[in-house]
Design a protein that fits this description.
Layout: E1 6-12, H1 16-24, E2 35-36, E3 44-49, E4 53-63, E5 67-77, E6 90-98, E7 101-109, H2 118-138, H3 151-160
Antiparallel strand pairs: 1-7, 2-3, 3-4, 4-5, 5-6, 6-7
Family: Belongs to the AHA1 family.
InterPro entries: ASHA1/2-like_C, START-like_dom_sf
Domain Activator of Hsp90 ATPase homologue 1/2-like C-terminal: 15-136
Length: 162
């Protein structure tokens, strides 16, 4: 069966432990405005982008230097008919050695092309996973700092006339 969930990956020279630590440091690669924490199983955090998107995420699983799994507990999109498209989906970070490098495979289970938000979300995840890669490789990510960062976010803001 064909995998349809959104997935992206990359290789870095850093150790699996460094990759794991960077994933958990969500304010340094995803959004400086995240409320809550993502440090241990059971933690919850809220991510939001202006009035476009807000999601409540629970840390479901953590295997140091190997895996992180988040579950979207609640979600709101202002730009889709089904405002809750992400609710119940899971966000998975798989970490593995690949020779002398480390591979990170990111998968958003349940984020599929049939979702109205798919193109915007694909653009968002591509941008923020690139930021995560920068954080891992250089020590500095490019998180959202409270404004529209991706091209899709900027187009949605312009369409709203904001």
């Amino acid at each position: 069966m064909e995998k349809r969930d959104y997935t992206i990956g990359f290789l870095v020279d850093q150790s699996p432990e460094e990759v794991f630590a960077a994933i958990c440091n969500v304010r340094k690669w995803w959004s400086e405005g995240i409320e809550g924490s993502a440090d241990k199983v059971g933690d919850r955090f809220i991510h939001s982008v202006l009035d476009l998107h807000r999601c409540d995420i629970a840390v479901k699983e953590m295997v140091p230097a190997r895996k992180v799994v988040w579950r979207v507990v609640d979600n709101y999109f202002s730009f889709t008919k089904d405002k809750t498209e992400w609710t119940g989906t899971e966000i998975v970070f798989d970490i593995a050695r690949a020779g002398d490098r480390t591979e990170l495979r990111f998968t958003h289970l349940g984020l599929v092309p049939e979702y109205e938000c798919y193109d915007v979300c694909r653009d968002g995840w591509s941008t923020y996973i690139s930021s995560l890669r920068e954080l891992i490789a250089t020590g500095k990510g490019q998180p959202n700092i409270g404004e529209a960062r991706t091209g899709s976010e900027q187009r949605l803001i312009r369409a709203k006339g904001a």
